């Protein structure tokens, strides 16, 4: 083989690998279930849906769990936060080009994060992973360390988490890809994390431009294409950040004195985006949300387990009530219903009024799967306790959410 042919093959291989890295980075950049890191059906070795009944994992396995993802990814960092509170051995590893082919082949998805269990199996979907870990804790006699819970509390936490899993990541998109300083900051950061050192410089410009274009397309798909939509999105995100700050001035966690999945996903957003990216960090400082910035710093020392107290009525926390008002009076409720309707008609998109403008959204099957998962959890309470089921249904109805999560469709 002549030198020219060999150099051509090497160059083509490098470009293909860099394109793979752009796809990974775009996922981290967008941090949306549809486009990136998170909520897709969980797979083990790409062969079948994951079931918590098939694996005997323990609190202190011989090998730690490994969270494969990116440090700037909303959902990768959600799992980082969860493992901070869980009593499991754990380590984070960046999904670079060297691991890409193996991880994607074995997990059945190109999205991040994927978690490698102590048995070497790979799982995807942050909520399913955390549900699985909760199940292990119950079996091991440590139900007080769960991030959800098995009764009405679990449904409340899932419903609040849903807003941050399925809707709020669009705000992470907004802050990351509409500010030039923040965009350049992340282009460099992602390129450095994805690419081996000897490839970083020659391909940095290529990777950065590809990621930025992809981010713009994802913003269009999530209703953030135009200036007014972006202004409305910033206003909503700052409003929700202020709710968090108010609650955290009274309790160590967002629903009281015990961490839960809501804390994990919010911390994931803070660590991956809002507390580190220049534009949102500056906006939070200017808004005087110092407590949220302190709490959302990666080095902040949250109270240890011995200081936690059970969540008795998380639905009554100030933050829960404020967020539920936002979910029902803002666009989230209608967006969820219209997404469900569009998919039932096999439509790829739908239009709705989102604050001050008519907005087009791409229909997302992952969000519908997540909605059905909560609906099934509500139905499952019937077998757990008829009284608990009735209380949960009444609570959903009182907030106008019964059609979303308690229906019979």
From TrEMBL:
InterPro entries registered for this protein in UniProt: Glutathione-S-Trfase_C_sf, Mito_Protein_Transport_Metaxin
Listed SUPFAM superfamilies: GST C-terminal domain-like
Gene Ontology CC, one term: cytoplasm
Superkingdom of this protein's organism: Eukaryota
Protein's name according to its UniProt entry: GST N-terminal domain-containing protein
Originating organism: Sphaeroforma arctica JP610
Lineage, top ranks: Eukaryota, Ichthyosporea, Ichthyophonida, Sphaeroforma
């Amino acid at each position: 083989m002549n030198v020219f042919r060999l150099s051509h093959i090497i160059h083509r291989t490098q470009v293909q690998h860099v394109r793979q890295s752009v796809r990974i980075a775009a996922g981290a950049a967008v941090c949306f279930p549809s486009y990136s890191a998170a909520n897709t059906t969980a797979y083990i070795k790409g062969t079948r849906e994951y079931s918590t009944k098939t694996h005997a994992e323990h609190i202190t396995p011989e090998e730690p769990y490994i969270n494969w993802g990116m440090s700037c990814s909303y959902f990768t960092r959600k799992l980082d936060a969860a493992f901070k509170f869980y009593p499991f051995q754990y380590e984070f590893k960046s999904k670079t080009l060297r691991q890409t082919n193996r991880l994607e082949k074995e997990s059945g998805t190109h999205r991040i994060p994927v978690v490698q269990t102590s048995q070497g199996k790979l799982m995807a979907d942050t909520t399913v992973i955390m549900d699985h870990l909760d199940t292990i804790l119950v079996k091991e006699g440590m139900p007080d360390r769960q991030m959800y819970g098995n009764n009405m509390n679990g449904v409340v936490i899932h419903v609040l988490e849903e807003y941050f899993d399925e809707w709020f990541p669009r705000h992470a998109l907004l802050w990351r890809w509409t500010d030039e300083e923040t965009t350049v900051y992340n282009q460099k950061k992602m390129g450095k994390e994805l690419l081996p050192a000897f490839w970083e410089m020659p391909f940095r410009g290529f990777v950065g431009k590809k990621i930025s274009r992809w981010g713009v397309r994802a913003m269009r798909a999530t209703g953030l294409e135009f200036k007014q939509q972006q202004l409305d999105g910033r206003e909503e995100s700052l409003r929700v950040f202020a709710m968090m700050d108010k609650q955290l001035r009274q309790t160590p966690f967002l629903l009281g004195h015990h961490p839960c999945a809501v804390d994990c996903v919010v911390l994931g957003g803070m660590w991956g985006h809002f507390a580190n990216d220049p534009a949102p960090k500056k906006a939070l400082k200017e808004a005087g949300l110092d407590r949220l910035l302190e709490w959302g710093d990666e080095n902040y020392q949250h109270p240890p387990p011995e200081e936690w107290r059970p969540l008795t009525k998380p639905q009554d926390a100030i933050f829960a009530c404020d967020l539920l008002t936002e979910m029902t009076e803002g666009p989230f409720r209608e967006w969820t219903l219209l997404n469900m309707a569009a998919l039932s008609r096999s439509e790829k998109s739908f239009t709705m009024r989102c604050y001050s403008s008519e907005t087009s959204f791409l229909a997302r099957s992952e969000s519908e799967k997540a909605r059905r998962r909560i609906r099934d959890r509500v139905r499952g309470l019937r077998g757990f306790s008829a009284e608990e089921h009735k209380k949960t249904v009444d609570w959903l109805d009182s907030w106008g959410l019964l059609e979303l999560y308690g229906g019979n469709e």
